[in-house]
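Whiteboard transcription, Tuesday session. T.W. wrote the C-alpha coordinates on the left side:
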Protein backbone atom coordinates (compact mmCIF):
# COMPACT_ATOMS: atom_id res chain seq x y z
CA UNK A 1 0.00 0.00 0.00
CA UNK A 2 2.76 2.44 0.92
CA UNK A 3 4.64 1.55 -2.28
CA UNK A 4 1.58 2.27 -4.40
CA UNK A 5 1.09 5.62 -2.67
CA UNK A 6 4.77 6.49 -3.16
CA UNK A 7 4.59 5.48 -6.83
CA UNK A 8 1.42 7.54 -7.35
CA UNK A 9 3.03 10.56 -5.65
CA UNK A 10 6.13 10.19 -7.82
CA UNK A 11 4.04 10.05 -10.99
CA UNK A 12 2.11 13.18 -9.99
CA UNK A 13 5.32 15.07 -9.20
CA UNK A 14 6.90 13.95 -12.48
CA UNK A 15 3.87 15.02 -14.48
CA UNK A 16 3.79 18.44 -12.81
CA UNK A 17 7.53 18.89 -13.48
CA UNK A 18 7.00 18.09 -17.15
CA UNK A 19 4.11 20.55 -17.32
CA UNK A 20 6.20 23.27 -15.69
CA UNK A 21 8.89 22.86 -18.35
CA UNK A 22 6.37 23.62 -21.09
CA UNK A 23 5.02 26.80 -19.51
CA UNK A 24 5.99 29.89 -21.40
CA UNK A 25 8.72 32.01 -19.76
CA UNK A 26 7.38 35.31 -18.40
CA UNK A 27 8.87 37.49 -21.19
CA UNK A 28 7.36 35.24 -23.87
CA UNK A 29 4.01 35.16 -22.06
CA UNK A 30 3.88 38.94 -21.59
CA UNK A 31 4.96 39.65 -25.17
CA UNK A 32 2.27 37.27 -26.43
CA UNK A 33 -0.25 39.03 -24.19
CA UNK A 34 0.63 42.23 -26.07
CA UNK A 35 0.03 40.47 -29.37
CA UNK A 36 -3.38 39.21 -28.23
CA UNK A 37 -4.68 42.06 -26.05
CA UNK A 38 -2.75 45.18 -27.08
CA UNK A 39 -4.15 48.17 -28.94
CA UNK A 40 -3.99 46.15 -32.16
CA UNK A 41 -5.04 42.62 -32.88
CA UNK A 42 -1.69 41.21 -34.02
CA UNK A 43 -2.90 37.70 -33.26
CA UNK A 44 -6.54 36.69 -33.46
CA UNK A 45 -6.78 33.43 -31.53
CA UNK A 46 -10.27 32.85 -32.90
CA UNK A 47 -11.65 29.68 -31.32
CA UNK A 48 -8.23 28.32 -30.32
CA UNK A 49 -7.90 27.42 -26.66
CA UNK A 50 -4.09 27.23 -26.74
CA UNK A 51 -1.44 29.04 -28.80
CA UNK A 52 1.70 27.19 -29.92
CA UNK A 53 4.72 29.43 -29.26
CA UNK A 54 8.48 29.57 -29.61
CA UNK A 55 10.99 32.35 -29.04
CA UNK A 56 14.57 33.55 -29.24
CA UNK A 57 16.20 36.44 -27.35
CA UNK A 58 18.76 38.49 -29.29
CA UNK A 59 21.10 40.76 -27.32
CA UNK A 60 23.82 41.11 -29.97
CA UNK A 61 22.39 42.38 -33.25
CA UNK A 62 21.35 45.87 -32.15
CA UNK A 63 24.08 47.30 -29.89
CA UNK A 64 23.06 45.51 -26.73
CA UNK A 65 19.33 46.21 -26.99
CA UNK A 66 17.25 43.17 -26.08
CA UNK A 67 14.94 41.82 -28.74
CA UNK A 68 12.55 38.95 -28.40
CA UNK A 69 11.58 37.08 -31.55
CA UNK A 70 8.25 35.39 -30.96
CA UNK A 71 6.73 32.76 -33.22
CA UNK A 72 3.03 32.01 -32.99
CA UNK A 73 2.42 28.86 -34.99
CA UNK A 74 -0.83 28.38 -36.92
CA UNK A 75 -1.10 24.71 -35.99
CA UNK A 76 0.53 21.87 -34.07
CA UNK A 77 2.52 20.81 -37.18
CA UNK A 78 4.48 24.07 -36.80
CA UNK A 79 4.75 24.54 -40.54
CA UNK A 80 3.45 28.12 -40.68
CA UNK A 81 2.70 31.08 -38.47
CA UNK A 82 3.71 34.60 -37.65
CA UNK A 83 7.05 35.83 -36.40
CA UNK A 84 7.35 39.05 -34.41
CA UNK A 85 10.36 41.21 -33.64
CA UNK A 86 9.68 42.74 -30.22
CA UNK A 87 11.99 45.07 -28.34
CA UNK A 88 12.18 44.42 -24.61
CA UNK A 89 12.20 47.66 -22.67
CA UNK A 90 12.23 48.28 -18.95
CA UNK A 91 9.24 47.87 -16.64
CA UNK A 92 7.31 45.23 -18.61
CA UNK A 93 7.23 47.31 -21.78
CA UNK A 94 7.23 45.51 -25.13
CA UNK A 95 7.56 47.36 -28.44
CA UNK A 96 6.40 45.41 -31.49
CA UNK A 97 8.80 46.49 -34.22
CA UNK A 98 8.21 44.06 -37.08
CA UNK A 99 6.16 41.04 -38.06
CA UNK A 100 5.71 38.66 -40.94
CA UNK A 101 3.69 35.61 -41.91
CA UNK A 102 5.86 32.64 -42.83
CA UNK A 103 5.52 29.14 -44.26
CA UNK A 104 8.01 26.31 -43.86
CA UNK A 105 8.36 24.08 -46.94
CA UNK A 106 9.06 20.33 -46.69
CA UNK A 107 12.73 21.05 -47.52
CA UNK A 108 12.80 23.38 -44.44
CA UNK A 109 13.09 26.55 -46.56
CA UNK A 110 11.10 29.51 -45.30
CA UNK A 111 8.97 31.80 -47.41
CA UNK A 112 7.12 34.95 -46.42
CA UNK A 113 3.71 35.43 -48.10
CA UNK A 114 3.65 38.82 -46.34
CA UNK A 115 7.31 39.89 -46.00
CA UNK A 116 8.55 41.90 -43.03
CA UNK A 117 9.28 45.60 -43.26
CA UNK A 118 12.91 46.48 -43.89
CA UNK A 119 13.55 44.57 -47.09
CA UNK A 120 16.09 41.79 -47.54
CA UNK A 121 18.03 42.49 -44.34
CA UNK A 122 14.94 42.12 -42.13
CA UNK A 123 13.77 39.06 -44.06
CA UNK A 124 17.20 37.42 -43.74
CA UNK A 125 17.26 38.22 -40.01
CA UNK A 126 13.83 36.69 -39.48
CA UNK A 127 14.64 33.67 -41.63
CA UNK A 128 17.81 32.98 -39.61
CA UNK A 129 15.88 33.42 -36.36
CA UNK A 130 13.08 31.06 -37.41
CA UNK A 131 15.69 28.46 -38.42
CA UNK A 132 17.45 28.87 -35.07
CA UNK A 133 14.19 28.48 -33.14
CA UNK A 134 13.21 25.39 -35.14
CA UNK A 135 16.65 23.86 -34.58
CA UNK A 136 16.21 23.98 -30.78
CA UNK A 137 12.83 22.18 -30.82
CA UNK A 138 11.62 24.04 -27.72
CA UNK A 139 7.92 24.79 -27.96
CA UNK A 140 5.58 26.35 -25.47
CA UNK A 141 1.85 26.50 -25.07
CA UNK A 142 -0.14 29.37 -23.62
CA UNK A 143 -3.83 29.21 -22.85
CA UNK A 144 -5.72 31.94 -24.69
CA UNK A 145 -7.90 32.48 -21.61
CA UNK A 146 -4.76 33.29 -19.58
CA UNK A 147 -3.35 35.55 -22.31
CA UNK A 148 -6.58 37.54 -22.45
CA UNK A 149 -6.57 38.37 -18.74
CA UNK A 150 -5.86 42.03 -17.94
CA UNK A 151 -2.24 42.68 -16.96
CA UNK A 152 -2.01 46.11 -15.31
CA UNK A 153 1.81 46.22 -15.26
CA UNK A 154 2.08 45.41 -18.97
CA UNK A 155 2.84 48.16 -21.52
CA UNK A 156 2.45 47.34 -25.20
CA UNK A 157 3.80 49.67 -27.88
CA UNK A 158 4.47 49.55 -31.59
CA UNK A 159 6.66 51.63 -33.87
CA UNK A 160 5.01 50.40 -37.06
CA UNK A 161 1.41 51.51 -36.63
CA UNK A 162 1.82 54.09 -39.42
CA UNK A 163 3.23 51.50 -41.83
CA UNK A 164 1.44 48.27 -40.96
CA UNK A 165 -2.22 48.18 -40.20
CA UNK A 166 -3.05 45.33 -37.86
CA UNK A 167 -6.71 45.18 -36.97
CA UNK A 168 -7.61 47.77 -34.30
CA UNK A 169 -9.37 46.25 -31.30
CA UNK A 170 -13.13 46.56 -31.37
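and on the right, the sequence the group agreed on:
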Amino acid sequence: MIRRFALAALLVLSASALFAQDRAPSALFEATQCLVTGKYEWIDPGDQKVLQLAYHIDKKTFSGAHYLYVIVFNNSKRDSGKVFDIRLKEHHTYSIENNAKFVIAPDRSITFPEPPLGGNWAQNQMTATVHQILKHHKWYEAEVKQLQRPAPKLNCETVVEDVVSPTPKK
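Someone added at the bottom: Strands lie at 40-41, 50-58, 66-73, 80-89, 93-104, 110-114, 140-143, 155-158, 167-168.
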